[in-house]
């Protein structure tokens, strides 16, 4: 009996430990997504209130307008085309390591396209067209597959900021 009890105690300990570790590992990940989107929001002017549902007090950003998440409540899509936004894109967007789609066409966004975005290995498509970006057009990482038209109509893009 004693070895059995010891065995099930061990099994229970392992289960508890696994639960604690996975909570610790998963919780900050969704929090990072919130931090990245909050950094984006805080840098932007949003006269039309497109970002007004972006409440950092929530446990995840999956109910925010213009945001899509996967089953693990990680951000996969930012859909902010034609929202009358101005200001820069936050470098913190480079933390959104599940991001697949970044659509920001047709605003008045300015400053560089953050070089941190080249680390977004899941990025499938992005559209920066019809804004006022400047500086280098990223070409490495996921940007190898993003077409030139996604950068069109940014008169200062490719020139020094
Ligand atoms: C865009 O925002 C400006 C204020 O910055 C406002 O005057 C204008 O009406 C807005 N345009 C649209 C299409 O909502």
Automatic annotation (TrEMBL):
**Localisation per UniProt entry:** Membrane
What Pfam families does this protein map onto?
A: LRR_1, LRRNT_2
Mind telling me which InterPro entries this protein's record contains?
Answer: Leu-rich_rpt, LRR_dom_sf, LRR_N_plant-typ
Q: Which residues form the signal peptide?
A: 1-31
Gene3D superfamilies from the entry?
Ribonuclease Inhibitor (3.80.10.10)
Enumerate the spans annotated as Leucine-rich repeat-containing N-terminal plant-type domain. Answer: 31-70
Membrane disposition: Single-pass membrane protein
What do the Gene Ontology cellular component annotations say?
A: membrane
Q: Which UniProt keywords apply?
A: Leucine-rich repeat, Membrane, Repeat, Signal, Transmembrane, Transmembrane helix
Instruction: Classify the source by domain of life.
Output: Eukaryota
Show the coiled coil region(s).
none
PANTHER family recorded:
SOMATIC EMBRYOGENESIS RECEPTOR KINASE 1 (PTHR47988)
Q: This protein is called what? A: Leucine-rich repeat-containing N-terminal plant-type domain-containing protein
Which species? Triticum turgidum subsp. durum
